[in-house]
Write a structure and sequence with these properties.
434 Repressor (Amino-terminal Domain), 5 strands, 14% strand, Trna Endonuclease, Chain: A, domain 1, 245 residues, 46% helix, 2 domains, 5-stranded mixed sheet, single chain
């Protein structure tokens, strides 16, 4: 799987554009409020040149506090939110983790990786979708289980929107991740009813596991490099038809 190295270049260009766009909004609001750059600078305790650079989008790194304080003086309140732009760059470790599961699955399963949501404009993607006739299993791979509730909720939303029949949370088998699962208490067992052994047995037999489950595995060393050069056996992915279609 070739790395998308252009992503960081795109992000830098967007950052430059965003700095200029925010600067223009601040300048227009300042002028509308009848304030000079010097007046704003005096209130902030900074130089007039710094205010000028921010408004022109050419300032050195600007802190969130700078934007909040400057916005407050011109009756603006910044709102910062991150939106999914596309599929994240997967590291070798995640590929090795998925490979550790795939080698245990029967060859009847067809695998597709980084599967986009079928809704127009939705930029989320499932890590893997494995299919056999009558069953679509979505697999979300986590090398670090940092917030079980949030990660499970986001995976459930993807499963719903992709129309997958089953969901597997594939988690790297580490002491930290086992502690995080124990901390989740009974919630994980209530939401993911199929035990790991039964889940792996069903996947190995090429049959529907009949439910969702959590699987902890160690990564398969070296599989990341192989995956980058050898195309995965994939199945065409289409939205699941609803009744009446």
């Amino acid at each position: 799987m070739p790395p998308r190295t252009h992503t960081l270049g795109d992000a830098r260009r967007f950052a430059a554009w965003l700095g200029g766009d925010v600067g223009r909004e601040l300048r227009i609001a300042r002028e509308t409020a009848g304030l000079t750059m010097q007046q704003v600078a005096d209130r902030l305790g900074c130089s007039k040149s710094k205010v000028s650079r921010i408004e022109r989008g050419v300032s050195p790194p600007v802190t969130i506090e700078d934007l909040v304080l400057l916005g407050a003086l011109v009756a603006l309140r910044p709102s910062i939110k991150l939106f999914p732009r596309g599929r994240p760059l997967r590291d070798v470790g995640q590929i090795e983790l998925l490979a550790a599961l795939n080698v245990r699955m029967h060859s009847i399963w067809l695998h597709a990786h980084e599967v986009p949501m079928p809704q127009l404009g939705d930029l989320r993607a499932a890590d893997q979708l494995s299919t056999i006739p009558g069953c679509r299993v979505m697999i979300e791979a986590f090398r670090r289980l940092s917030d079980y509730q949030a990660q499970a909720r986001l995976a459930r939303e993807k499963q719903r929107d992709l129309g997958a029949d089953r969901l597997i949370l594939l988690i790297e088998d580490t002491h930290a991740n086992r502690r995080a699962l124990r901390a989740a208490g009974t919630e994980a067992r209530r939401s993911f009813l199929i035990p790991q052994r039964a889940m792996l047995a069903a996947l190995a037999a090429g049959r529907d596991p009949l439910g969702d489950g959590i699987v902890l595995l160690r990564r398969l060393p070296g599989a990341g490099a192989a995956t980058a050069t050898v195309p995965a056996r994939t199945a065409p992915v289409a939205p699941r038809a609803t009744k009446g279609e």
